[in-house]
Write a structure and sequence with these properties.
It comes from Actinidia chinensis var. chinensis. Pfam families: Hydrolase (PF00702). This is Pyrimidine 5-nucleotidase protein. This protein has 261 residues and is α/β, with parallel strands linked by helices. The chain folds into two domains: 16-26 and 99-235, Rossmann fold (3-Layer(aba) Sandwich), CATH 3.40.50.1000; 32-93, DNA polymerase, domain 1. Helix content is 40%, strand content 10%. It is built from twelve helices and six strands. The chain has helices spanning 6-11, 32-46, 55-66, 69-75, 82-89, 102-109, 123-133, 145-148, 169-179, 193-201, 228-231, 247-255; strands spanning 16-19, 114-118, 141-143, 186-190, 205-209, 220-222. Strands 3-2-1-4-5-6 form a six-stranded parallel β-sheet, with helices on both faces. Strand 2 (114-118), helix 7 and strand 3 form a beta-alpha-beta unit. The two termini are 24 Å apart. The model is unreliable at 1-9 and 239-261 (pLDDT under 50). The structure holds magnesium ion.
């Protein structure tokens, strides 16, 4: 795994790894996702005037129908500035709970293929979280909210430019175009089942991270991103080397992985 020469890259099935960020590159257990939900609920009360008792149901419905609360609120006619929303929802997150991950950093540094972040989060949050993890310099590019929504700031009414986010296929098309990748030779890793399913629909190779359930749209399932080498050794496959494990041989290993990330 240490010899990352050109022949290794030539024979791996992947030219590029496209990583989701939140709860893919760090564990859901540290509570950032829960804190984000609480902040969204506060935003719905303080900035949009909803009753506290309505927020949870509303947030879940907006997420299911529109991909995010911001996308849903704008689609419904609420003129909410994306930067204001992100600074409210992400600005007060407990970033101290995201700790440097030296193991992940070392793992990423053994991967010679292109590595790109593909997140629905805004750029400020993405860079903060990557800096906290100590892995920002492991990625050549961050495809984020601003990349998918370049015209939002120019809109004259909230529903003029619908917010584009994963799992919409448009979001994936933008990422593939911006990153100039061949989806058939790109491994997409995400903790969201619906994002993984959308990735598969646009022709990406897919890995579901942080789960132990198997879904048909996921080519691989990883308990945590730190088990990448065990779950997908093909990433490091070198020229002249033979696959040491087939998928069927790996299935029992994956099936016995403990639940949770
Ligand atoms: Mg995620």
């Amino acid at each position: 795994m240490d010899s990352c020469n050109k022949s290794t890259r030539d024979s791996s099935p992947f030219d590029c790894l496209l990583f989701d960020l939140d709860e893919t590159l760090y564990s859901a257990k540290i509570g950032i996702g829960e804190a984000t939900k609480r902040n969204i609920d506060d935003f719905l009360v303080q900035e949009c005037g909803f009753q506290e008792t309505q927020t949870k149901i509303l947030r879940v419905e907006l997420f299911k129908t529109y991909g995010s609360s911001l996308a849903g609120l704008r689609a419904l006619g609420y003129d909410i500035d994306a930067d204001d929303y992100h600074s409210f929802v992400h600005g007060r997150l407990p970033y101290d709970s995201i700790k440097p991950d030296a193991q992940l950093r070392n793992l990423l540094r053994t991967i010679n293929q292109r590595k790109i972040i593909f997140t629905n989060s805004d750029r400020i949050h993405a860079t903060k979280a990557l800096d906290r993890l100590g892995i920002r310099d492991c990625f050549e590019q961050i495809i984020c909210f601003e990349t998918m929504n370049p015209n939002l700031a120019k809109s004259t009414r909230p529903d003029e430019f619908p917010v584009v986010l994963k799992p919409s296929l448009d979001a994936f098309r933008i990422a593939i175009d911006v990153a100039e990748i061949d989806p058939r030779r790109t491994l997409f890793l995400d903790d969201s089942i619906r994002n993984v399913a959308a990735g598969k629909a646009v022709g990406l190779r897919t890995a579901l991270v942080g789960k132990s359930i198997k879904i048909k749209e996921a080519d691989f399932v990883l308990e945590t991103v730190n088990s990448l080498a065990q779950a997908i050794p093909e990433i490091w496959l070198g020229e002249g080397q033979r696959m040491t494990r087939t998928r069927s041989q790996m299935d029992p290993i994956l099936a016995t992985a403990p639940i949770g990330a």
